[in-house]
Amino acid sequence: MTHSILRIDASARRDGSVSRDLSDRIIARFPEATVTTRDLARGLPLIDETWVGANFTPEADRSPEQRETLALSDELIAELKDADTLVIGLPIYNFGVPATLKAWVDLVARAGVTFRYSEAGPEGLMTGKRAIVAVASGGTEAGSEIDFATGYIRHVLGFIGITDVTFVTADRLALDVDATLNAAHSQIDALPVAA
Fold it and tell me: Which of these, 22, 28, 33, 97, could form a disulfide with 3 (CB 3.0-4.6 Å)?
């Protein structure tokens, strides 16, 4: 069975993007995989009152307009469901995730679809998947008290059921580009590639 990767690029930059380069290198470790790419630099709509109303209307009762409102969300969720592995390029912008990545999260985190509430609390429905997150930052150290990106993305992924999360970090680019990239490349070389 073919391994399926969903690649999510969150960098606003296409040329010279470290997170995109790291994602390229990660995906090269899976030469037989099929890859679906979602480039968030092309933009995503923010959820609004119309979207929330459509989302909270039971599926059988949705109007054609409400179904159209949720069509992109449904498409993004289908990409997520079809993937065995997520490769997320995560540049840290102003200590957090890019706005487009937050927009993607808002569109895929849907009660009853990617998670559900039970008596024991929230339960993620996207289980059995792996995520590899390529982090790039000029000076915000991954895992530090000023990093509001990596903990957030780990929590969100776990919330929808993806608990196997690995971070590849290039988080000292402003201090020493060569050493930072060499360390990140070594992390990629050490990644296990078995599904």
Answer: 33
Residue of higher predicted confidence among 195 and 121: 121
The pTM of the full predicted model, rounded to 2 decimals, is: 0.95
Contact predicate 70/51, CB 8 Å: yes
**Distance in angstroms (rounded) separating the CA atoms of residues 10 and 106:** 14
Q: What is the pLDDT of residue 141?
A: 93
pLDDT range class, residue 12, cuts 50, 70, 90: very high
150-165 confidence digits (pLDDT tens): 999 999 999 999 999 9
Q: Give the whole-angstrom CA distance, residue 192 versus residue 166.
A: 10
Domain of residue 45, CATH code: 3.40.50.360
**194 assigned to some structural domain:** no
Q: How many domains does the chain have?
A: 1
In this prediction, residues 181-194 reach a mean pLDDT of 92
Q: What tokens appear for 13 in the block?
A: 């930059």
Q: Is residue 195 part of a domain?
A: no
Query: Smallest Cα–Cα separation from 134: which of 96, 193, 188?
Result: 188
Q: Is residue 16 part of a domain?
A: yes
State which residues form the domain around 48: 4-189
Query: Closest Cα to residue 93, out of 51, 139, 33?
Result: 139
**Residue 51 and residue 69 in contact, taking contact as beta carbons nearer than 8 Å:** yes
CA-angle at 190, arms to 187 and 191, nearest 5°: 90
Question: Which tokens sit at 72?
Answer: 């992109």
Place of tokens 């360390």: 183
